[in-house]
Amino acid sequence: MKILLCPSPELYQLYHRPEAIVVITDIFRASTTIVTAIANGAAGIFPVATTEQAQAIGLANGYLMAAERQVRRCDFAHFGNDPLEYTPEAVANQRIVLTTTNGTRSLRIALEAGAQRILIGSLLNLPDTLDYCHRSGAQEVLIVAAGWQGQISTEDCLYAGAFACFAREQGLGIAEGDMAVMMQDLWHGHCQTMQERMDYIKRTEHYARLVQAGHADAAEYCMTIGTHSLVVGLVDTQTGLLGKL
Q: Beta strands 64-69 and 72-73: pairing type?
């Protein structure tokens, strides 16, 4: 199994492979939030591109509304993009319409390009996501790093490094291409322990944004590996519904 990294959704067309499993990752914080919500009992999540769509769909269907722009919750929404908000008490058996600055946009780009098998990747459920890709018989896994407004974000690219390291250690796959190999080496050399990960990630631009917005308390949660045993992905290509696979 070959593991490739598209470092920005702006480059997706250069990396698109029709038969690959596509894993969308936005560690800070959309993919972590989506995995957390589904793990805590949400019935499904509809990702949309705009705040207007989120509000219209939410009001029309009685869905909970989750919306974030520039790291902050939108005024009309029940939730922002903080995974710690999505408790079982808040989301169990509920459908949620979600829009975020980067993560949901990346998903829409992959869908519109024709990706058929799309997963949501967080460190929380990385081991289960890797196992699912292996059991599916996929020859290629394309990890799409959501980044920040088209720019590369370290934490998203590091997810690909972690994925490749775990795959290599278990004999399940290899990093393919310069970006994936670089991130594999970076993860292996600097991110093995939580202390190493946090020391490294605190130097990044997006961590600084979280600090400025008062959401830095979620960072360590987002950088934790293997706490949630589930696979989250696209369950309906027509509506874009995300759920447990």
A: antiparallel
- Asked if 120 and 22 count as a contact pair (C-beta separation under 8 A), the reply is no
Instruction: Decide if 103 contacts 204 (C-beta within 8 A).
Output: no
Domain boundaries, the chain: 2-230
Query: Would you say the pTM of this structure is higher than 0.70?
Result: yes
In CATH terms, the superfamily for domain 2-230 is ComB-like (3.90.1560.10)
Q: Residue for token digits 């990960």?
A: 197
Outline where 113-177 has alpha helix (H): 126-135, 154-169
Residues 23-56: pLDDT tens digits? 999 999 999 999 999 999 999 999 998 999 999 9
In terms of Cα–Cα distance, which of 73, 41, 71 is closest to 54?
73
Tokens 């800070």, located at residue: 28
Letter string b/e over residues 9-29, b meaning 16 or more CB atoms within 10 A of that residue's CB: bebbeebbeeebbbbbbbbbb
Alpha-carbon gap, residue 180 to 164, rounded angstroms: 7
Rounded CA gap, 127 and 227, in Å? 9
Separation in Å, CA 189 to CA 4, 68, 143, 186: 19, 33, 20, 5
